[in-house]
Structures are given as structure tokens and as C-alpha cells.
Write a structure and sequence with these properties.
mainly alpha; 56% helix; disordered N terminus; 4 helices; 0% strand
Length: 177
Amino acid sequence: MHGSSRRRLSPVGGPRYPFPMDQSTIAGIPPAAFFSLPLVISVLSQLSAQVFKVVLYSVTERRFAGDRFVNAGGIPSAHTAFVTALAGSIGLQRGVASDIFAVAFVFAAIVIYDSFRLRGHVQRHAEVLNRLLAPRRDVPGSGGDGREQPLSEHVGHSLPEVAAGIVWGLMFALGLS
């Protein structure tokens, strides 16, 4: 193998840091050790979407809606924002023709489909089951002991909630990449 143009896989004298020194930064600060910038952007996108939901629903419901931070459903879809920010920032950093963008795009498509279609069906099933079981929950001798809680009906997303999540995630990817 004399004169071979094959590159060595083990970097001798490689970087001392777990992230490349030329990697993009947020406001001049490199991402935390062991985290990639797309991951940081995605987490910020999801957390901010959840905080936005708390504020939005607190105002519209005229009560503190802190449960919206951890519950599924609502506008914008935080799951959609997360995967859109991830795919968008990878596409901007590595290019849309890269293999890693293809993986992120397919992952995003599956999560978005799941949040809209599959979880939407689960939500509708929960609504129907709650209506069917409501009369039996507190009737003595019906098998219900009064302690059964209704199923959560806020698990899926509507098309506008998913669209808002896509826009939210893209804004983070474009703004922070």
C-alpha cells in the first residue's frame, strides 16, 4: 500500500475538546461539552415552545396553566418544533444533501406524522371512552369505585398546532445556526 491515499482513521494530536473548534456558536459561546449545536438549538426550541404554551394558556384560561409545560398537545407542537429545529440546523450546518440531514428529516417526518395522525386518533378514542365511562364512574355497583380518573384528552395535535411547531422550529434553526 505504498503511495496509498487512504487517510488514517485515528487522529494523532487531535483536538483537546469534544467539539470542533471551528463549530458554530451561540452568541460567541461554544455549546456545552458533549453536545452538538443542533441538539442545543432543538432543546431550546422545545423548551421555549413549552414556556410559550404555559403563558398562552394561562392568559386564555385566566389561570396559571403550569401543567401545559409537561402535558402533550397545544399550540405550538413542541415535539414538532424540536425535530424541525434539529433537521433544519443539521441541514444548515451539514447541507441538505448530507446523510445525517436525511436521517434527521426522516426522523422529523415520523415524529410529526405521529403527533398529528396517530396521537390524534388516540385523543379521539380517549374522548369517546370518557363519554362512555362517565356515567359508570360514580354509580355504586357498576364496577366503578369513584377513584378512576378520566383518560387524558390532550395528546394529539391539530394541523395548525403542527404547522406552528414547524415554523417555531425553523425560526430557531435559522436564527441560531
